[in-house]
Design a protein that fits this description.
Layout: H1 19-24, H2 26-33, E1 37-39, H3 49-52, E2 62-68, E3 77-83, E4 91-95, H4 101-113, E5 116-123, E6 133-140, H5 151-154, H6 158-183, E7 185-186, E8 195-199, H7 210-213, E9 214-219, E10 226-228, H8 234-243
Antiparallel strand pairs: 1-10, 2-3, 3-4, 4-6, 5-6, 7-10, 8-9
This protein binds adenosine-5'-diphosphate and magnesium ion.
C-alpha cells in the first residue's frame, strides 16, 4: 500500500480526521490520477449515440414476475417471466427515473461484462398502473442470496458478523480484480448489497462452517463501475478495493 501524501484532498491529520483513512485512500486515488481507471459516466468514455442512445427504443412484449427487494438508487427491479419467447436465462429489469450519464455508463459496463440483454424504454410495471415508459435495463438475473438474508448471519454475534463481512468483502474484491483483468470493468462498489452468495449444499447452520460452505459469489450493480484503461497489477486493484470500505 502506498503512503499518504498531503494535499487539499488529503490534508494533514487532525484529531477529528483519523490518519488511518488518509493513507488507505491513496491506492485508489493513484489509479484515478494515473489514468488507469475512469468512471463509466465520464463523457470521454461514453461515445455519442452509441451510449447516449441506449434508451431510445421502446421495448415491448415483456411480462413481469415479482418485484425484487432491495433497490435503493433506482426505480425498482423486477423479475421477467417472458421476453421474446422464453428467455434462455433468468432475466430481470432494472428501472430508472430518467435517462442520464450514470445509467448510460451502467449499460456500457454491463455490455462489456456480457450481462446486458437489452435496454430501452419499458412500461413501468408498478401495480398502481403508472402509465409511463421508464428507462430500464434488461440483464441476466444472477443466483444467490445476500449475506444479511442468511440465517447463519442473522443468528451470529456482532463479532461473528464482522468476521463474515470481512471474508465476503475480500471475496468481492478478488472477484472484482478478476473481472477487471478479463473484462476491463472494475466493479468498485463493494457493499454487501451487491454480493450474491451461493452455497455448496445448503446454507451452513454454524458460523464456523460459513466460509467453506460458500460455493460462489456474484457481483451485481454496475452503477458505479470504472473502466480499466491501462495494464495494471492485480495487487493494486485488490488494495484499492479492500481499502474502499474505509473511504
Ligand atoms: N443481476 C442481478 N441478479 C440478481 N439480483 C440482482 C441483480 N442485480 C440486482 N439484484 C438485486 O437487486 C438489489 C438492488 O439492485 P442494485 O443493482 O444493487 O440496485 P441499487 O443501485 O439500488 O443498489 C441487489 O441488492 C440484489 O439483491
Ligand atoms: Mg446496489
Amino acid at each position: 500500500m502506498s503512503t499518504s501524501r498531503l494535499s487539499p484532498m488529503n490534508p494533514s491529520p487532525q484529531h477529528n480526521s483519523p490518519t488511518v483513512y488518509q493513507s488507505s485512500t491513496d491506492t485508489f486515488r493513484s489509479l484515478l490520477k494515473d489514468g488507469t481507471l475512469k468512471l463509466f459516466t465520464n463523457p470521454t468514455i461514453l461515445s455519442g449515440r452509441n451510449d447516449e442512445g441506449v434508451f431510445d427504443k421502446t421495448l415491448e412484449g415483456i411480462s413481469f414476475g415479482p418485484e425484487i427487494e432491495g433497490a435503493s438508487n433506482n426505480y425498482g427491479l423486477w423479475e421477467i417471466s417472458d421476453y421474446q419467447e422464453k428467455p434462455k436465462h433468468n432475466l430481470l429489469a432494472k428501472f430508472f427515473k430518467e435517462p442520464g450519464p450514470q445509467h448510460f455508463g451502467e449499460v456500457k459496463a454491463l455490455r462489456m461484462m456480457g450481462l446486458l440483454v437489452a435496454s430501452g424504454m419499458i412500461r413501468d410495471p408498478h401495480p398502481d398502473g403508472r402509465p409511463l415508459l421508464r428507462p430500464a435495463i434488461i440483464m441476466e438475473k444472477k443466483e444467490g442470496v445476500l449475506l444479511r438474508n442468511t440465517a447463519v448471519y442473522k443468528l451470529a454475534t456482532l463479532q461473528e458478523q464482522r468476521s463474515m463481512t470481512e471474508q465476503i468483502n475480500a471475496m468481492m474484491c478478488r472477484q472484482a480484480v478478476e473481472d477487471a483483468v478479463t473484462f476491463k470493468v472494475y466493479h468498485y462498489d463493494n457493499n454487501l448489497s451487491n454480493a450474491l452468495l451461493t452455497f455448496l449444499d445448503k446454507e451452513p447452520a454454524k458460523v464456523i462452517d460459513f466460509i467453506k460452505s460458500v460455493k460462489g459469489l456474484e457481483l451485481v450493480d454496475y452503477g458505479d463501475a470504472y473502466m480499466v484503461m491501462k495494464d495494471v497489477s492485480k495487487e493494486r486493484l485488490y488494495d484499492a478495493c479492500m481499502n474502499r470500505k474505509k473511504l
